[in-house]
Amino acid sequence: MKPTRILAAAGLCLAALCANPGWAQDVRPSVTAASPDGSLVLSVTTDNDARPTWSLSRKGKLLIAPSKLGFLLTDGLNMVRGFSIAGSEKAAADDTWEQPWGERRFVSDHYNEVVVRFQQSQVQGARRMNVRFRLFDNGIGFRYELPEQPALKTMRIAEETTEFDIVPEGKAWWIPGGEWNRYEQVYRETPIDAVSTAHTPITMRLEDGTHLSFHEAALVDYAGYWFKRASGQLFRTELAPGSDSAKVVRDLPFATPWRTVRIANDAAGLVENDLELNLNEPNKLGDVSWFKPARYIGIWWGMIRGDWTWAEGPRHGATTKRAKQYIDYAAQHGFRGVLVEGWNMGWNGDWFGHGDAFSFTQPTPDFDLKGLTAYAAKKGVHLIGHHETGGNIANYEPQLDDAMALYGKLGVDVVKTGYVADAGGIIAPGDKPGETKMVWHDGQRMVNHYLDVVKDAARHHIAVNTHEPVKDTGLRRTYPNWVSREGARGMEYNAWNAFANGPDHEPTLVYTRMLSGPMDYTPGVLSLEGAQHTPLASTLAKQLGLYLALYSPIQMAADFVENLKAHPREMEFIEHVPTDWAESHLIAGEVGDYAIFARKDRNGPEWFVGGVNDATARTVTLNFDFLDEGKTYEAKIWKDGEGATYLTEARHRIAYDTRMVRKGDKIDIWLAPGGGAAMRLIPQD
Ligand code: NOJ
Ligand code: CA
């Protein structure tokens, strides 16, 4: 279907006159627009101090009260006051586009759009600023567009002052922005008016059941924003810092990232929502069939637990011998990838937040990179590369292209990158040769760095899995080789402390972090043990359910191969679960409590169902409405065994079942405390 664009002059309405016909003295013009089904209605105007504002109602009720728009600059009058509406244009589109890989093959992109043109008075600086709003039935996005203009050549942004004044009360699920551990924090559940400064996406459930998620789309050459509460339920953008007082520096013309709000009736509407993807530009890389969604294993969990080391020495993890063992296992069990960390020079000594010794091209003497890639290739396996920078991009950037070229030549077509450093602790090249400066993982400099790495990798047909990333804002649509990232507490935390992530973590991630995009969570620790036997807050069935709950086109089975081998029945599920889907539906779930998905294989007729639970045992009725009419499926089921609980050794109790299901059938499934479930549905005819 081709997009249909209807251009029309937006009708200007006198703001207060429309709402209150009695107030004839108030002549501020406003612009209104509605989503395609009319449920969301936007109003854009200026307030008594000539400050641009936007507001939004849903189904006739005010959702976002008038909220200001604008910028503070480091070198000029602010762009907050003295604005009037100079005009507006409307457009609409109803399109469907295809993803090269993803949670669903086809994405519907249906919206009404309005661009509102603001002009500032002479005395306030005479700047022009346009705001483009797109209204979908399940959300809204808007961004600032700064056109070329005589009064402003370069914008040095001290702060963006976009506001979101949420009207109904409710609860929020969030992690703090600006904290030392970046996005790697346990989620909090608080009233909306108890949020401080949050990372996005931040999720809310309002008293009337409406679900919201505030985030951004197409974060390019700009700083990421934190969602900062100003008072009550009024929030404001706070940009991640730069290395001086300007958080963003851009030459005009340019557009900011989109500020987005997903708006849904229920949890499923929040999750099955492609707002940010739709607001990103289409694929710029062309044919990306060289990226193959796939499962992988790795020489990794041993280092994370401390049994092996990244550094050279007697416990070095990345040895030729061990890599061969992992390649052999991968070949036998259908894993395309084997991640090897610590294969390169520079890990000896203190690399955290430092990383100046890393070489990205020189293997350690006990690791035969060339021989191993050839050995793997013969078996249809690919090594997954690793670039840990220690947060030192001044050391990494000059080596980047050589490093990618080396991997490209050797058939290493996925690379995991890493930026282990505290927030604000990235070492970037300075303004003069030999100098460095400190920047933030989510500041403008790093936003540009991450994308430069992705673009360079694409030139060598390599996909990127970023750890310690900036948050995902849907850029996989434009650069489909940016396939996964961390950006939350992953499995690794379970190696370090008992119940480190807690049973609520994954059923919260589904509705928060996962709304931004794929996560390299690294499930599949079938031993349910971290270092020194520290237990995971998980039953065995939950380890399988994670493959359906937390989407990524590259999915690890993280445990040692010895532990995978010890669980042949669980491996039967892992060896079959796809990493690329034609469709994905949340068929049961509530934010922070539980999440069960039904997903259809993109390359075959099978469906997979499963997910994760929090600490509260529950029986969930699954409705098989999503199946094809008239077909019978054999459902192979992995579920929590009787009495299973994450709290005791009973976490290992798993039960297996097989039954026939057809469209419309219902199955009750019991989820243990910290439990989960997984099913494989095989059509019978
Ligand atoms: C932190 C990453 O999340 C982890 O996966 C990796 O192994 C270490 N950094 C070392 O790079
Ligand atoms: Ca990490």
Automatic annotation (TrEMBL):
It comes from the Bacteria. Pfam families: GH97_C (PF14509), GH97_N (PF14508), Glyco_hydro_97 (PF10566). Gene3D superfamilies: 2.70.98.10, Aldolase class I. The keyword Signal applies. One of its GO terms (molecular function) is carbohydrate binding. Residues 580-681 form the Glycosyl-hydrolase 97 C-terminal oligomerisation domain. Residues 1-24 form the signal peptide. Residues 34-282 form the Glycosyl-hydrolase 97 N-terminal domain. InterPro entries: Aldolase_TIM (IPR013785), GH (IPR017853), GH-type_carb-bd (IPR014718), GH97_C (IPR029483), GH97_catalytic (IPR019563), GH97_N (IPR029486), Glycosyl_hydrolase_97 (IPR052720). Keywords: Signal. Residues 300-488 form the Glycosyl-hydrolase 97 catalytic domain. This is Alpha-glucosidase. The keyword NAD does not apply.
